[in-house]
Amino acid sequence: MDPGRLTGGRPAPLLVVAGLEGPPHPGLPLAGALGSTVQCRGLDLPGRAGERRPLRDVQAMAVHLLPSVLVAQPWGGPYQLAGYGSGGIIAYELGRLLRGIGQPVAPVILLDSVLPLAGHPPLQVDPVLAVRELARMRHLACGWQGACRCGVDHSQPLAAQGARIARALGATDPDHYEEHILAATGVYTAALSALAAYEPGPSDLRVVLIRSADWSNVWGLPSQLARHTSPCLGWELVPLAGLRLHVVATDRPSLFANPTLWEVANIVSHYLAPPSAGAGRSPVPPAVAAWEAMPPPAAEPPMSPAGTPAMPPAGAPLTTETGAPTGWASGGRGGPAGWTGGLRVSVS
Q1: In this structure, are residues 208 and 106 in contact, taking their beta carbons and an 8 Å threshold?
Q2: pLDDT tens digits for range 214-249
Q3: Burial class (CB in 10 A: 0-12, 13-18, 19+), 249
Q4: Less crowded by CB within 10 Å, the N or C end of the chain?
Protein backbone atom coordinates (compact mmCIF):
# COMPACT_ATOMS: atom_id res chain seq x y z
CA MET A 1 0.00 0.00 0.00
CA ASP A 2 1.21 3.51 -0.80
CA PRO A 3 2.09 5.19 2.54
CA GLY A 4 0.64 8.38 1.12
CA ARG A 5 -2.82 6.80 1.38
CA LEU A 6 -2.30 6.46 5.14
CA THR A 7 -1.16 10.05 5.60
CA GLY A 8 -3.18 12.00 3.06
CA GLY A 9 0.08 13.24 1.58
CA ARG A 10 1.16 14.93 4.80
CA PRO A 11 4.91 15.49 5.19
CA ALA A 12 6.79 14.17 8.19
CA PRO A 13 6.61 16.49 11.22
CA LEU A 14 9.64 18.07 12.83
CA LEU A 15 9.81 16.68 16.37
CA VAL A 16 11.54 19.19 18.66
CA VAL A 17 12.78 18.03 22.06
CA ALA A 18 13.00 20.49 24.95
CA GLY A 19 15.74 20.22 27.53
CA LEU A 20 16.28 21.51 31.03
CA GLU A 21 14.27 24.68 30.54
CA GLY A 22 10.57 24.70 31.35
CA PRO A 23 7.73 26.31 29.40
CA PRO A 24 7.42 27.94 26.96
CA HIS A 25 8.70 25.14 24.75
CA PRO A 26 11.84 26.26 22.88
CA GLY A 27 10.36 24.88 19.68
CA LEU A 28 7.66 27.56 19.59
CA PRO A 29 9.75 30.37 18.08
CA LEU A 30 11.31 27.99 15.57
CA ALA A 31 7.88 26.67 14.57
CA GLY A 32 6.67 30.23 14.01
CA ALA A 33 9.64 31.07 11.82
CA LEU A 34 9.34 27.87 9.77
CA GLY A 35 5.72 28.71 9.00
CA SER A 36 2.56 26.70 8.61
CA THR A 37 3.98 24.46 5.89
CA VAL A 38 6.18 22.70 8.47
CA GLN A 39 4.35 20.76 11.15
CA CYS A 40 6.31 21.00 14.41
CA ARG A 41 5.58 18.89 17.47
CA GLY A 42 7.16 19.46 20.85
CA LEU A 43 8.45 16.78 23.20
CA ASP A 44 9.25 17.57 26.82
CA LEU A 45 10.98 15.92 29.75
CA PRO A 46 8.64 13.64 31.72
CA GLY A 47 7.52 14.61 35.21
CA ARG A 48 7.34 18.41 35.01
CA ALA A 49 3.71 18.47 36.09
CA GLY A 50 4.23 15.84 38.76
CA GLU A 51 2.51 13.12 36.71
CA ARG A 52 5.41 10.70 37.27
CA ARG A 53 8.77 10.49 38.97
CA PRO A 54 11.59 12.19 37.04
CA LEU A 55 14.07 10.06 35.14
CA ARG A 56 17.79 10.12 35.93
CA ASP A 57 19.11 8.56 32.75
CA VAL A 58 19.25 10.12 29.28
CA GLN A 59 18.55 6.85 27.47
CA ALA A 60 15.54 6.26 29.76
CA MET A 61 14.20 9.70 28.81
CA ALA A 62 14.51 8.80 25.14
CA VAL A 63 12.75 5.47 25.71
CA HIS A 64 9.94 7.30 27.51
CA LEU A 65 9.50 9.68 24.55
CA LEU A 66 9.79 7.05 21.82
CA PRO A 67 6.06 6.08 21.80
CA SER A 68 5.13 9.75 21.28
CA VAL A 69 7.47 9.86 18.28
CA LEU A 70 5.97 6.71 16.76
CA VAL A 71 2.41 7.95 17.32
CA ALA A 72 3.23 11.33 15.74
CA GLN A 73 4.42 9.55 12.57
CA PRO A 74 2.78 6.11 12.48
CA TRP A 75 3.64 5.49 8.83
CA GLY A 76 7.34 5.17 9.62
CA GLY A 77 10.46 7.15 8.79
CA PRO A 78 12.45 8.98 7.89
CA TYR A 79 11.88 10.75 11.20
CA GLN A 80 12.90 14.41 11.53
CA LEU A 81 14.31 15.13 15.00
CA ALA A 82 15.64 18.33 16.55
CA GLY A 83 16.48 19.52 20.04
CA TYR A 84 17.47 22.72 21.79
CA GLY A 85 20.18 22.70 24.45
CA SER A 86 20.15 19.44 26.39
CA GLY A 87 17.08 18.47 24.37
CA GLY A 88 19.43 17.90 21.46
CA ILE A 89 21.17 15.14 23.42
CA ILE A 90 17.82 13.41 23.98
CA ALA A 91 16.96 13.89 20.29
CA TYR A 92 20.22 12.16 19.39
CA GLU A 93 19.35 9.22 21.66
CA LEU A 94 15.87 9.06 20.11
CA GLY A 95 17.55 8.81 16.73
CA ARG A 96 19.69 5.93 17.97
CA LEU A 97 16.59 4.13 19.27
CA LEU A 98 14.80 4.57 15.96
CA ARG A 99 17.80 3.25 14.05
CA GLY A 100 17.89 0.31 16.47
CA ILE A 101 14.40 -0.73 15.38
CA GLY A 102 15.28 -0.33 11.71
CA GLN A 103 13.68 3.06 11.06
CA PRO A 104 15.33 5.66 8.79
CA VAL A 105 16.17 8.97 10.45
CA ALA A 106 16.86 12.30 8.77
CA PRO A 107 19.88 14.31 9.95
CA VAL A 108 19.33 15.11 13.64
CA ILE A 109 19.34 18.89 14.17
CA LEU A 110 21.01 20.13 17.36
CA LEU A 111 20.51 23.75 18.42
CA ASP A 112 23.23 24.96 20.81
CA SER A 113 23.46 21.44 22.21
CA VAL A 114 26.72 21.02 24.11
CA LEU A 115 27.97 17.71 25.45
CA PRO A 116 29.04 17.44 29.10
CA LEU A 117 32.62 16.48 29.79
CA ALA A 118 33.23 12.76 30.25
CA GLY A 119 33.91 11.48 33.74
CA HIS A 120 31.86 14.22 35.38
CA PRO A 121 31.73 13.95 39.19
CA PRO A 122 28.31 13.46 40.82
CA LEU A 123 26.37 16.70 41.29
CA GLN A 124 25.20 18.08 44.60
CA VAL A 125 21.44 18.43 44.98
CA ASP A 126 20.68 22.11 45.60
CA PRO A 127 16.96 22.97 45.31
CA VAL A 128 17.57 26.71 45.81
CA LEU A 129 20.11 26.77 42.98
CA ALA A 130 17.73 24.73 40.83
CA VAL A 131 14.93 27.29 41.30
CA ARG A 132 17.29 30.16 40.46
CA GLU A 133 18.60 28.49 37.31
CA LEU A 134 15.13 27.45 36.15
CA ALA A 135 13.94 31.04 36.57
CA ARG A 136 16.89 32.27 34.52
CA MET A 137 16.24 29.75 31.77
CA ARG A 138 12.62 30.87 31.65
CA HIS A 139 13.78 34.47 31.34
CA LEU A 140 15.82 33.58 28.24
CA ALA A 141 12.53 33.09 26.40
CA CYS A 142 11.60 36.68 27.25
CA GLY A 143 14.53 37.78 25.10
CA TRP A 144 13.20 35.66 22.25
CA GLN A 145 9.75 37.23 22.67
CA GLY A 146 11.13 40.78 22.77
CA ALA A 147 9.61 41.58 26.18
CA CYS A 148 9.60 40.11 29.67
CA ARG A 149 6.56 37.90 30.06
CA CYS A 150 7.73 35.65 32.88
CA GLY A 151 7.09 38.29 35.55
CA VAL A 152 10.19 37.39 37.58
CA ASP A 153 12.41 40.32 38.60
CA HIS A 154 15.97 39.02 38.73
CA SER A 155 17.21 42.22 40.33
CA GLN A 156 15.19 41.35 43.45
CA PRO A 157 15.46 38.38 45.85
CA LEU A 158 13.74 35.34 44.38
CA ALA A 159 12.64 34.11 47.81
CA ALA A 160 9.84 36.70 47.83
CA GLN A 161 8.66 35.81 44.29
CA GLY A 162 7.44 32.25 44.76
CA ALA A 163 4.07 32.80 43.08
CA ARG A 164 5.68 34.57 40.12
CA ILE A 165 8.23 31.80 39.68
CA ALA A 166 5.53 29.13 39.84
CA ARG A 167 3.49 30.88 37.14
CA ALA A 168 6.62 31.42 35.04
CA LEU A 169 7.28 27.67 35.21
CA GLY A 170 3.78 26.87 33.97
CA ALA A 171 1.70 26.54 37.16
CA THR A 172 -1.95 27.52 36.79
CA ASP A 173 -3.51 26.57 40.12
CA PRO A 174 -2.58 28.92 43.02
CA ASP A 175 -3.37 26.15 45.51
CA HIS A 176 -0.63 23.98 44.02
CA TYR A 177 2.15 26.48 43.26
CA GLU A 178 4.49 24.86 45.77
CA GLU A 179 3.92 21.36 44.41
CA HIS A 180 4.54 22.61 40.88
CA ILE A 181 7.87 24.19 41.85
CA LEU A 182 8.91 21.01 43.66
CA ALA A 183 8.06 18.91 40.59
CA ALA A 184 9.92 21.29 38.27
CA THR A 185 13.05 21.32 40.44
CA GLY A 186 12.88 17.54 40.79
CA VAL A 187 12.89 17.09 37.03
CA TYR A 188 15.68 19.65 36.67
CA THR A 189 18.01 18.07 39.24
CA ALA A 190 17.31 14.56 37.92
CA ALA A 191 18.05 15.67 34.34
CA LEU A 192 21.26 17.38 35.46
CA SER A 193 22.42 14.17 37.11
CA ALA A 194 21.55 12.25 33.95
CA LEU A 195 23.53 14.66 31.78
CA ALA A 196 26.54 14.56 34.10
CA ALA A 197 26.67 10.77 33.73
CA TYR A 198 25.92 10.74 29.99
CA GLU A 199 28.37 9.38 27.45
CA PRO A 200 27.09 9.36 23.85
CA GLY A 201 27.36 6.08 22.02
CA PRO A 202 28.33 5.68 18.37
CA SER A 203 25.71 5.68 15.65
CA ASP A 204 25.18 5.77 11.91
CA LEU A 205 23.25 9.03 12.28
CA ARG A 206 24.11 12.26 10.52
CA VAL A 207 24.07 15.23 12.86
CA VAL A 208 23.63 18.94 12.09
CA LEU A 209 24.86 21.28 14.83
CA ILE A 210 23.60 24.87 14.64
CA ARG A 211 25.36 26.92 17.29
CA SER A 212 25.74 30.53 18.26
CA ALA A 213 29.22 31.95 17.83
CA ASP A 214 29.48 33.70 21.21
CA TRP A 215 29.10 31.63 24.38
CA SER A 216 30.62 34.20 26.75
CA ASN A 217 27.20 34.89 28.32
CA VAL A 218 26.50 31.93 30.61
CA TRP A 219 23.11 33.26 31.78
CA GLY A 220 20.70 30.33 31.92
CA LEU A 221 23.31 27.59 31.74
CA PRO A 222 23.51 25.07 34.62
CA SER A 223 26.43 26.18 36.74
CA GLN A 224 27.30 22.71 38.07
CA LEU A 225 27.70 21.03 34.69
CA ALA A 226 31.15 21.04 33.06
CA ARG A 227 30.80 21.35 29.28
CA HIS A 228 32.90 20.97 26.16
CA THR A 229 34.17 24.25 24.73
CA SER A 230 35.38 23.03 21.33
CA PRO A 231 33.84 24.54 18.16
CA CYS A 232 31.65 21.46 17.71
CA LEU A 233 30.70 21.45 21.42
CA GLY A 234 32.07 17.95 21.90
CA TRP A 235 30.20 16.25 19.05
CA GLU A 236 33.41 15.88 17.04
CA LEU A 237 34.39 13.15 19.52
CA VAL A 238 31.33 10.99 18.81
CA PRO A 239 31.60 8.34 16.05
CA LEU A 240 28.88 9.41 13.58
CA ALA A 241 28.02 8.93 9.92
CA GLY A 242 28.56 12.68 9.49
CA LEU A 243 28.61 15.98 11.34
CA ARG A 244 27.80 19.42 9.94
CA LEU A 245 28.45 22.61 11.84
CA HIS A 246 26.64 25.90 11.17
CA VAL A 247 27.83 28.88 13.20
CA VAL A 248 25.38 31.77 13.58
CA ALA A 249 26.93 35.15 14.35
CA THR A 250 25.11 35.91 17.59
CA ASP A 251 25.44 35.25 21.30
CA ARG A 252 23.90 32.19 22.92
CA PRO A 253 20.86 33.88 24.57
CA SER A 254 19.86 35.42 21.21
CA LEU A 255 19.77 32.29 19.03
CA PHE A 256 15.95 32.41 18.80
CA ALA A 257 15.59 36.20 18.88
CA ASN A 258 14.97 38.37 15.84
CA PRO A 259 16.62 38.59 13.36
CA THR A 260 18.80 35.55 14.12
CA LEU A 261 15.77 33.29 14.42
CA TRP A 262 15.10 33.62 10.68
CA GLU A 263 18.67 32.62 9.86
CA VAL A 264 18.32 29.54 12.08
CA ALA A 265 14.98 28.63 10.49
CA ASN A 266 16.50 29.00 7.02
CA ILE A 267 19.30 26.57 7.89
CA VAL A 268 16.86 24.10 9.47
CA SER A 269 14.52 24.23 6.47
CA HIS A 270 17.29 23.00 4.16
CA TYR A 271 17.36 19.70 6.05
CA LEU A 272 13.58 19.11 6.05
CA ALA A 273 11.62 17.20 3.45
CA PRO A 274 9.73 19.61 1.13
CA PRO A 275 6.15 20.12 2.41
CA SER A 276 4.66 19.33 -0.99
CA ALA A 277 5.69 15.68 -0.81
CA GLY A 278 3.86 13.17 1.35
CA ALA A 279 5.14 10.24 3.34
CA GLY A 280 6.70 7.47 1.32
CA ARG A 281 7.58 9.70 -1.59
CA SER A 282 9.42 12.64 -0.05
CA PRO A 283 12.39 13.75 -2.13
CA VAL A 284 15.71 14.12 -0.39
CA PRO A 285 16.03 17.59 1.20
CA PRO A 286 18.43 19.81 -0.77
CA ALA A 287 21.10 20.07 1.91
CA VAL A 288 21.06 16.31 2.45
CA ALA A 289 21.43 15.66 -1.29
CA ALA A 290 24.36 18.08 -1.43
CA TRP A 291 25.86 16.40 1.63
CA GLU A 292 25.67 12.93 0.07
CA ALA A 293 27.17 14.14 -3.21
CA MET A 294 29.98 16.20 -1.67
CA PRO A 295 33.48 14.67 -1.82
CA PRO A 296 35.58 14.93 1.33
CA PRO A 297 37.77 18.06 1.43
CA ALA A 298 41.41 17.57 0.56
CA ALA A 299 42.80 20.20 2.92
CA GLU A 300 43.26 19.56 6.61
CA PRO A 301 41.15 21.77 8.89
CA PRO A 302 42.79 24.74 10.59
CA MET A 303 43.67 23.79 14.16
CA SER A 304 43.55 25.88 17.29
CA PRO A 305 46.37 25.75 19.88
CA ALA A 306 44.22 23.32 21.88
CA GLY A 307 44.22 20.87 18.99
CA THR A 308 40.60 21.29 17.92
CA PRO A 309 39.34 22.70 14.62
CA ALA A 310 39.56 26.47 14.75
CA MET A 311 36.40 28.59 14.73
CA PRO A 312 36.17 30.88 11.69
CA PRO A 313 36.03 34.59 12.44
CA ALA A 314 32.66 36.22 12.89
CA GLY A 315 31.49 37.82 9.69
CA ALA A 316 33.14 35.25 7.42
CA PRO A 317 31.08 34.62 4.27
CA LEU A 318 28.52 31.86 4.22
CA THR A 319 29.60 29.02 1.96
CA THR A 320 26.68 27.90 -0.20
CA GLU A 321 25.94 25.53 -3.03
CA THR A 322 22.70 26.04 -4.96
CA GLY A 323 21.31 27.92 -1.98
CA ALA A 324 22.00 25.16 0.56
CA PRO A 325 24.38 25.53 3.51
CA THR A 326 27.41 23.33 3.00
CA GLY A 327 29.51 23.54 6.17
CA TRP A 328 30.25 20.02 7.33
CA ALA A 329 32.57 17.80 9.27
CA SER A 330 33.07 14.15 8.52
CA GLY A 331 32.15 11.54 11.09
CA GLY A 332 34.53 10.35 13.78
CA ARG A 333 34.89 6.70 12.84
CA GLY A 334 38.65 7.07 12.43
CA GLY A 335 39.20 7.44 16.19
CA PRO A 336 38.18 9.50 19.20
CA ALA A 337 39.11 12.83 17.58
CA GLY A 338 37.85 11.53 14.27
CA TRP A 339 38.47 14.40 11.83
CA THR A 340 39.01 11.92 9.01
CA GLY A 341 37.91 14.20 6.21
CA GLY A 342 38.51 17.66 7.57
CA LEU A 343 36.14 20.37 8.68
CA ARG A 344 34.17 23.00 6.83
CA VAL A 345 32.11 25.54 8.70
CA SER A 346 29.42 27.89 7.51
CA VAL A 347 29.10 31.24 9.27
CA SER A 348 26.00 33.38 8.92
Answers
A1: no
A2: 999 888 889 899 999 999 999 999 999 999 999 999
A3: middle
A4: N
